[in-house]
Amino acid sequence: xxxxxxxxxxxxxxxxxxxxxxxxxxxxxxxxxxxxxxxxxxxxxxxxxxxxxxxxxxxxxxxxxxxxxxxxxxxxxxxxxxxxxxxxxxxxxxxxxxxxxxxxxxxxxxxxxxxxxxxxxxxxxxxxxxxxxxxxxxxxxxxxxxxxxxxxxxxxxxxxxxxxxxxxxxxxxxxxxxxxxxxxxxxxxxxxxxxxxxxxxxxxxxxxxxxxxxxxxxxxxxxxxxxxxxxxxxxxxxxxxxxxxxxxxxxxxxxxxxxxxxxxxxxxxxxxxxxxxxxxxxxxxxxxxxxxxxxxxxxxxxxxxxxxxxxxxxxxxxxxxxxxxxxxxxxxxxxxxxxxxxxxxxxxxxxxxxxxxx
Length: 358
Known about the structure:
CATH class of the largest domain: Alpha Beta
Order of helices and strands: HHHHHEEHHHHHEHEHEEHEHHEE
CATH superfamily of the largest domain: Vaccinia Virus protein VP39
Strand order of the largest sheet: 5-4-3-6-7-9-8
Largest sheet: 7 strands, mixed
Shape: globular
Oligomer: single chain
Number of helices: 15
Helix content: 40-55%
CATH topology of the largest domain: Rossmann fold
Structural class: alpha/beta
Strand content: 15-25%
């Protein structure tokens, strides 16, 4: 840097950005410690327990007190737990517990940190992909991506799918209550299909995904939930969805991951009943980059860089739609595939829900 360039530096802006970078450094390492606390059950042990000492928490979780004490220091510095210096205790407030300890909470986020941890483990794949332009397939990732993605999305689906998203679609709930044929494309470990199967006992559900390990886990989860006779799962891509005459086809946070989303949507349209409906749930995003310069956009662009876009580039066509495509671009994909009616049905802070009809 030349002297002239140094003289142009705004000291206040530099100081503010250094502060931001230090905060991000703390967040980055704290994300790892959140993942560790999640895996060891430290948060669950603290939830509702009131003030505890490091020794008591270690004894309760079968962990080493010295490590737990240092971990609690990080958690207190970040505001995740409250420290009382008078008696040397730490407490997990009820609000924080909803985010890091309660897997049924609609704002539970520990799964997201599990998925992020998987990405750190896979960083070598991403460095090579940046250099070569090659894709990184879903099957290539650390296994925590699969379980973390399930744990991240399932609370939102449980909170919103049956109570808000499906009722926002024209006439769909009536069909489901009467007995509908439903396909869940890109079903992953089956959470969304199982949630719907438990809510609508007269309907049948087929979940498809290209990842064999996820399909095996989905079958087991359906059996454990008691819905295996009405919710079955097969290994298939969106363009291989078997059967026709579906009353409802759902795509939860997966269309943007596909190499050929137009071709996938075109096949799905052909598999629909004449009066069928597509429910498309995608990450919340505005139509332009400038609309997504916020914390949610930052998180989704990050995940898109190392999960969604590489996954798409690994497939045929390799469109690389990305997790922040936005309603206008998604609507264009659906219309190119032959859908004539596309509208925003509802939304949450994390998801955009579109309804598409032939």
